[in-house]
Amino acid sequence: MAWDEPSRFLLLCCVAFTLFGVSQFVKSYNLRAKLAHIPTVGHPDWLSSYLTVFRYMRDPIGICQEGYTKFQGRPYKIPTMNGWQVVISDNTMIDEFRKFPDEMLSIREGVEHFLHFSYTVSPDLLRNPYHIGVVRNALTRNIPACYADLYDEITMAVKDQIPLETDWVEVYAFRIIVDILARSSNRILVGYPLCRNTDYLDLAKAFANTVIKNARSLHMFPEILHPIVGQIFSARRRSLRRIMKHLKPILEERIQMHNKYGKDWPEKPNDYLSWLLDDPHAQDWQRFSMPDLSMRMLHANFASIHTTSTFTHILYQLAAHPDLLQPLRVEKYGWTKVAMKEMHFMDSFMKEASRLTGISLSLLAVSCTNFSFSDGTTVPAGTVICLGSFSTHHDEEIYPSSEKFEPSRFLDKRAREGEGHRHGMAVPATDWLLFGSGRHACPGRFFAVTALKTLLAHIILNYDVKMKDDGGVPPSTVFAGNVAPNVTAKVMFRKREM
């Protein structure tokens, strides 16, 4: 019997589905056998575990809290759409986790596992991630020098996005925060005037979203098909061509000046792009490579724009507690990096808002070798390990009345002798995991906190803020295991009444 095209297509689909099922079964069976000694939340068997997978997609916090309560600090594993993950929440284990060398525990492999960077961004960024050192060192070191530009862009962006009216105006909070932070962060990334270019900013915002969406699509396919489907479900080449149209003339001019004068030349911009060009850790083929530099700029936008979620949580708490506007306003303000650092009550308010409504898990890593924690728990090579952020942040022994919003919680902790610095929002600890932990904590956290604090300070000094009908914090959005702020909620603003 002759096969027509629809029949052949159907046959191919059946074969592909069968191969996918078999490969997933073999992979899951082998890994589950290696992790059998670690207790499971939900169903432990291969087929029934998918019931827990679907539950995790809808209720990641509930799954993590169940494991945290049931196993009382011991590691536990959960099944997810992209495999088994081992969750640790015990302070001692987190302290050990942050000290493990890269040869034992790879954050780079964790990023690849979760976001498939080789396909969604670029494999070159993982092979030589010298941009991380640029963020950790050059960016952090230059925050005071660049602060005036950051503040200038924040004030202009807020003015354009939030009307300064005497009557209350409703705005979609998440949307305007994305626009404000994309524009203000790019003032430090590429400088003026490109930081205000509409097409460039639209690209930066779109790329940040497509990386996550494309990674989710790849999770649906077995690894053997990633080289094929990775090309289909990736917009990186299109995004790269688009950003290079904006960056090419800027890069050509800077490279020309660098070749003529060296690293120091007249009126050289002090921004992330210049720091990338100056960094000695770029390989020979990467140095002055427009595609490579452009892709690292896209990655920087991906990282910076995702601080939007953190600030949205903070703004919702402020709007739900307008009585805190005045206490926040009485802190001594001055538009410098040093002044921002001294705003301890604001720092406490922001950190508490992030603690209460933040992420469920953080800092994924993959074990490179077999090793054991001090309690005897063995972890085989290839295991995905993550930190139970939400459970730690809601532990009653660590944070009494953990479900209550206490804006001065960390201000009070600062008052204790010898703990003035430890409780800052940008300072990672075994009980504060928003930015990860240890050597692998978010390298841009000091810049992120400075930018968010400056934005919040500017808003509270110029606006009154509240939720409509004196409502509370909008419920978070949960999708595919991720907990994010409500993206459709509105916040009301008006010109501050003196």
UniProtKB/TrEMBL annotation:
Keywords in alphabetical order: Heme, Iron, Metal-binding, Monooxygenase, Oxidoreductase
Pfam families in UniProt: p450
PROSITE patterns documented for this protein: CYTOCHROME_P450
Protein known as: Cytochrome P450
InterPro entries named among the record's database cross-references: Cyt_P450 (IPR001128), Cyt_P450_CS (IPR017972), Cyt_P450_E_grp-IV (IPR002403), Cyt_P450_sf (IPR036396)
GO molecular function: heme binding; iron ion binding; monooxygenase activity; oxidoreductase activity, acting on paired donors, with incorporation or reduction of molecular oxygen
Similarity annotation: Belongs to the cytochrome P450 family.
Cofactor(s), names only, from the UniProt record: heme
UniProt binding sites for heme: C442
